[in-house]
Design brief:
By secondary structure, the chain is α/β, with parallel strands linked by helices. It folds into 3 domains: 183 residues, ABC transporter transmembrane region fold (Up-down Bundle), CATH 1.20.1560; 116 residues, no CATH class; 260 residues, 3-Layer(aba) Sandwich (Rossmann fold), CATH 3.40.50.300. Helices cover 62% and strands 9% of the residues. The chain is built from 20 helices and 10 strands. The strands form 2 sheets. A 6-stranded mixed beta sheet has the order 6-7-8-3-9-10, sandwiched between helices. Strands 2-1-4-5 form a 4-stranded antiparallel beta sheet, covered by helices on one side. α5 runs antiparallel to α8. The N terminus and C terminus are likely disordered. Bound molecules: adenosine-5'-diphosphate. The site of adenosine-5'-diphosphate has 10 residues, from α11. One of its GO terms (cellular component) is plasma membrane. It is a multi-pass membrane protein. Pfam families: ABC_membrane (PF00664), ABC_tran (PF00005). It comes from Streptomyces shenzhenensis. It is found in: Cell inner membrane.
Length: 615
Amino acid sequence: MTSQPSGPGPDPEHPGAGTETPPPPLRTLAEPVRGRLALAVGLQAVAALAGVVPFIAVSLIADRLTEGSPAAGDTLWPLVTLACAAGLLALVCGTAAGALAHVADNDLQLTLRRRLARHIGRLPLGRLTGRGTGEVKQAVQDDVSALHTLFAHTLLDVVAVLTAPVLALGYLFTVDWRLALVTVVPLVLGVLLFSRAMSGAAAQMAEFGAALGRISAAAVEFAAGIAVFKSFGRGRKAHERFVGATEGFADFFSGWVRATLVSSTAAVLVVAPAVVLLLLSVVGTVFVTNGWMTGAELVPFLLLGPAVAAPMGVVGPRIQQIRAGQAAAVRITELLATPALPEPTAPALPDGHHISMRGVSFSYDGRTDVLSGVDLDLAPGTVTALVGPSGSGKSTLASLLPRFHDVTAGKVTLGGADLRDIPATELYRRVGFVLQDVRLLRASVADNIRLGRPDATDEEVERCARAARIHDRVMALPDGYATQLGTAVTLSGGEAQRLSIARALLADAPVLVLDEATAYADPHSEALIQDALSALAAGRTLLVIAHRLSTIRSADRIVVLEDGRITEQGRHDDLLAAKGRYTTLWEAQRTAQPHRTAPAGGDRAADDIRQGSAR
Ligand code: ADP
């Protein structure tokens, strides 16, 4: 997902074609606080109008003073009082409008974040891995903040700068309609020039966003890949794409600036207060010297004239905020519209823990099947290993058990009940998972282990940590089980995996999906993980995504997947004897990693898993 550029166009001071009608997503999202926002807008309009009154009063005072009649002095105090009262009203209403908009926006943020959290909690887990996490962060944090800017700040700013000039201009027309018309000239010219500068802005903004997106993608690639590039002596290569993207952006941006420079600069100049003041002074002097108006009548034009064109300078930059708010509203609405994992209408409870897959097919995009026609049974208390080349569908098949995704065709049953008919809480009580990419919370070690069973005692937590071979490491941490993770202390990949195994042990789900860790360089860590896994396998139904065949030699069943289909299955020795695809994979790994299959290493681990499951 690319983030919506909230930055300016070629010139941040340049307005475009005026405020746009908010699209339905924005209006729909703001619905709960619409009344309060409308009231805030009303108050802000009153504040803006009241803010003009002191200027009108001052020009009237100037008028009275120049009249020189003795009675004129008596009429001054009411005007002074009016100016003060109006100033005070502007202050009170402006403050109230700001406070009200903030309170309304605060409620809106809370409501939206709650809705998002509730909805995200009901999304299929598969939707939230990888790309999904960035999308969720963007919606919950950045997009809701963009709406805050829009509703709590931009909206009132725009109301203020659009209202005040209306009263100012209205008053100026009552003083002298001819000079009032002259006052409108900079505004009209400004609008025309701005429109010209911003023509094609939508397409340019899209390109601006795309160019920024390319930079951030290249930056991520640069940061993530630098070690690999450097270790292969290609340090320069690492930043070539990044530099290319930034150069591309600079070219695009300077082209855009060049194309709009003249009209945008002219637009800024023509509405600048000093320029408007100069124009009115010159034309006004001509009027006064020709006796078409009095000097006192010129005063309100000099005081209020610059304010008439001023909105052009303020609305423009706000357009970016309005667009960013609109785009944020669209993204939030899309996320809220993502179909949640359907909860069963007629819930069923599993009878036992036998898992059966029948005619299972699955597709991520609705077109290409990643799994097709898979039939598989996992008998309670057995270890089944999924093997196959990368991309053959092992992770996808395993992810169907904890309902990361629902099957596209066929069905998966647990204890005779279709997974889709089992209420989510019941399913997760029975099916646990330990993934390679372990997510630890910013919480204490004990709370991280307790995740699946918050009421577990300290003794139970420690028992599981011991079984998962992580207890000694935890005791070496500064505060033992109370140590907060993610801040001062971070665990290595292998340690985090053992902690997640302790978590799964404590949660005690009878069925477990396990994505076997791929790479733990040091044999000690690997042996500890294997010990932890064998504790986990004891008495459970285990589905292991096996990346190293050595560790699953004694699994009850090895299932070979190729292109989403099961091509072979059986025990290790039988599969080797059959000299089929498994034999090829086995030989390939043995030559690539001879030490992995050496009896002293992998075999011990494999036997551990096996013995564990037989216990
Ligand atoms: P394996 O675990 O055997 O490496 P996977 O189950 O991860 O295989 O992937 C099987 C196929 O599905 C691959 O072609 C992969 O590109 C595709 N795939 C995996 N995850 C996703 C996803 N989230 N969205 C789209 N395609 C995916």
